[in-house]
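Just wondering, does anyone understand these tokens?
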Amino acid sequence: MPGARRCVGARAPLSRSGLEHAVTEPSRGTTPGSPAEASADDHDGVVAEEAVAVVAEGEGEAGAGAGALGEAKSAEDAAPGPSEAEEEIAAQRELWARIARRKAEKEGPIPAGAKLSGQAADLLAAVRAMESGQAAPPAPVAAPVPAQDRPRAPEPARGAAVAATTAPEALAAVGDVLAEGGAPRTLAAQVTAALGEQAGDALREDPWLLLSVPGVQPEQADGFARALLGDGCGPGDERRAAALVGWLLERAAVRGNTALAYPQARAALAERSVPDPDEALRHAVAEGAVLMFQDGAADAEGGTEDEEGAADGPAVPVLLGLDRYALAEESLADGLARLVKTAQEASWDEAAAQAPSPSAGELIRAVAGHGLVLHTGGEAARAEPVALAEAARTLGLRPVVAAHSENGRRRVGAGAVTVAGLLSGAEGPGRDADGALDLDLLVVLDAPQLDVETATVLVESLPDAARLVLSGDPGVLWSAGAGRVFADLLAARVCPQIASRTPDPGPLGELVSGIGIGELNQVDAPGKEVVIVPVRDAGEAVHRTVQLVADSVPRAIGVPSGQTQVITVGHGGAVGTRALNAALKERLNPGPGRFGGFDPDDRVAYVPAPGRAVLAAVVSADAEGLRLDCDGVPVVVPRELVDSVVRHGWALTAHQAAGMRWPAAVVVLPGDAAQGLNRPWVYTAFSRGERHLSVVHGVDQALAQAVTGVPATDRTTRLRSLLEGLFTPAV
């Protein structure tokens, strides 16, 4: 961890700078209520860091609930022609069509009603054998996947909003079925987006398909089914069991998992009163609704009987997964192997000798000899992959540096792109005649924010012999989407890993580096770089936060309100993003909310796709929708999408803020946020400020306990085992 070597001595409380005394006491007459549980409407569609979900660091930001985001994308370019979002959708559709062809070439699903055979039966036998204490039978090894054509250059898509293109008659029909089952008609657009224009007929035939709508709970789907089917349904209904299996895996994906252990799935079904969970899972696998895996089983069983301890090795878990994520991970592993095998070793010694730092030189040498390299470090270490790109350019190569967000792209400088812009074609070099990105070296910053699907699209878009560098800080929160690509690659050790020796400077760098190794150290902050503001309750936390942003930080630090970002644990509750944004708007930009709750100059968080938050300013609104200014890029958000993809943005969650930095950050930790804290959350939130960090502190010892004793919540993924099966671990 950069700068970690400077954090010595016993753990001590953070210092309290004199800035806290510049904050006035709150007026008791205007103090909001005490801490409360997050409200039920936390499913706001902008992120999924709900009051309960946020306890697990790895949970994603995909939308959920009645106002769920779905898969809506944005148009970040007002010029005529296909928007960035439309092109991005087209590119991803092309990729998933290719993956679907790959799936079709494998053994097809077992006919409905037939008994399991082949790999599914073998894996189920392995589950039973392990549970009974017997040696598991060898798992079959999947046949090699034939090479496929890489995605072609994206073609324009018809649009991003499914609801906008659905016939009114179809929506009305779906609304009628929903009303008949006691569900709100307002879900019609979401149901249609999930099930298609024939959603009404589909729901009548299988009411539990309602579970495919984000945010719908099994109890609600059961009530809906009883209203439609009467006595014709029960807890053992095959349709119910199949829908519950899919719901379990989708819920696991929202938490960042690409797979679910078989025993966990079986136990969860039993808790939902499914009479025979094993039979339900067998049926789901036979129908092709889910896939079953035992990655690495062949290796674990590959030794001879005479090898000592061969029979006593750790059991290889049996996993269940949705084909969407399973095939993405398989394609990603194959694509990374292709880059490694097609790269040609080169001599860049002269460029390495002229590098601006020893770590940059080490990185240049590693990339010269390998097609895939990992680079770890903090904010200051970002200069090293940028230096690599400059060195490659002097050697006549075509490098591209891509960041997770527009904020991150600006911090890199001219010539950098965003990952989303690169994939859509809106930024970067474009694609060659074969559909591959027209480059020789791709450097991806903020690599921990890559979810498995985005990483798959990215790798599949690279030409043979291209070099890929994934760079990032392993201490931050993982991606909002499913997977943990960067962490799995680091753990697999299948390629060179260059750990930067460039520490982040100053008191903030020292503080964050200590957090990264589990220490909450006292740091000297003579320039008020770190300030602690103690609070007693939620009302005081909101009051102090508003004063810090509007008055204290601009006056004492010199950072204006527009360059200060508030970060809190979740969206709901008395000190969630909604409560803080309401208070901040009243102070910083009061108004009647004449544009659907927004006024000109409101600061908003716009989420064009799950996991991507873009800060913008409201310009105006008209019949086409809400007009935003996203860092100089005009964007029009259709009226029907505004409620689900736009929220006020003076306050964000840590997941939304990941990959972005501001001159000043105010991190709010009310008393009811204690159980939502862990080390990656604190590390991410505290490292968002470049010059100043204020901590509105109401969690007592929970902050130190989170840093020292609560590591990242693990995610269940297959990528590491897939990589280890393809590579010989690097030394």
